[in-house]
Amino acid sequence: MSKSFPNQLFRSIPTKKPIDFPPKQGGNLSFRRREPPLKVTTTSTEGRNLKWAVKSGVVEEKRATVVVDVEGLVGFLYEDLPHLFDERGIDRAMYDERVRFRDPITKHDTIDGYLFNIRMLKLLFRPEFHLHRAWQTGPYEITTRWTMIMKFIILPWKPELVFTGISIMGINPQTQKFCSHVDRWDSIKNNEYFSWEGVMEVVKQLRYYKTPDLETPKYQILKKTADYEVRKYAPYIVVETKGDKLSGSAGFNDVAGYIFGKNSSTEKIAMTTPVFTQASDHGSYNVSIQIVLPSEKNLGNLPEPNQEALSLRKVEGGIAAVSRFSGKPTEDIVQEKEAKLRAALLRDNLKPQEGCLFARYNDPGRTWSFIMRNEVLIWLEDFALD
Question: pLDDT tens digits for 162-215?
Fold first, then answer.
């Protein structure tokens, strides 16, 4: 059975005139060329900082080239950062309101949060901040290297926490201010927030080492890794004599007698810490025992020793890698600690010198072994902060 359909169902479809691409001159079709969006690479920290600024709306998303006075900002950091924890504080005006702060265990996304973090550190600790270096590492990026020492004052034994590392400071090219601040600690591998490794690093440093309230050789901590500290020692003077082994005490009564008055002027000299034993070779066959003399003394105003076996010597100081440990320091333990420290230095492409020093800070007859502070030191050659 056939069916018929109304003619109106089969209306003709009009044919569209083809469009030429590109359109012919005089045509009414036009195209508005759009600038491609700003492409921010994440292959560098500078790129991540700029990407954060774009995402937060603090940098206009366009390709305009902005000249930033990075050299001037480097100079500003050298002048401003030493005030991080003093009454003056840092200059808030040089940071965006939406500054991004990250370290392994802390994060803030505003300048108010950033400054709150600084106030909390000042409340709980007695922080000291030392800026070693600041330099440009990207078109909108400055990196700083620093040491921070914090005494945790709310614990009875007031442990001293040491952190070293770098801060990567991102610059907002539109405001010429800092829009991000990311800290990387030298002592851990996982520096991304939130890092349990960072938490354990803090907990580890809360343990108690007994350090007598006596003068010690002056040093500055340049770097702290998971295995050792790198310290820059100022020159100091020792009275020394021949010892028997690194963990031994042979000769101690002689050097102690010198500071207790057995010298050419019977002068009594203040006790210091630590007592050093030094091995000048790998096999520890040539060992001396030393007491460091007070810093106000020099070779010109010290009395002469009464014994020929004693001598006064100026140690020129320098850069040393140091490994700390507690417990009763037997010879095997000291040798093991020295070997581990030397292996870690070679692994990190540093240049340890021959020999080592063993530092004892406590009287073994009056100190529990588990709170003793013992250290092995190895002098380094050609060390430079990265």
Answer: 999 999 999 999 999 999 999 999 999 999 999 999 999 999 999 999 999 999
Residue with tokens 């920290």: 45
Q: Which two tokens stand for residue 323?
A: 């490994």
Any idea what DSSP says for residue 25?
Answer: T
DSSP 127: E
Q: How many helices (H) and strands (E) does the chain have?
A: 6, 16
Beta-carbon contacts of 358 under 8 Å, excluding residues fewer than 6 positions away, are 246, 247, 276, 277, 278, 279, 329, 334, 338, 374, 375, 376, 377
Instruction: Please name the amino acid found at residue 268.
Output: K
In whole angstroms, give the CA distance from residue 319 to residue 346: 15
Query: What distance in Å separates the CA atoms of residue 285 and residue 281, rounded to the nearest whole number?
Result: 7
**pTM of the predicted protein model:** 0.84
For 184, 193, 345, the CA distances from 279, given in Å and listed in that order, are: 36, 43, 18
Per residue in 352-383, pLDDT tens?
999 999 999 999 999 999 999 999 999 999 99
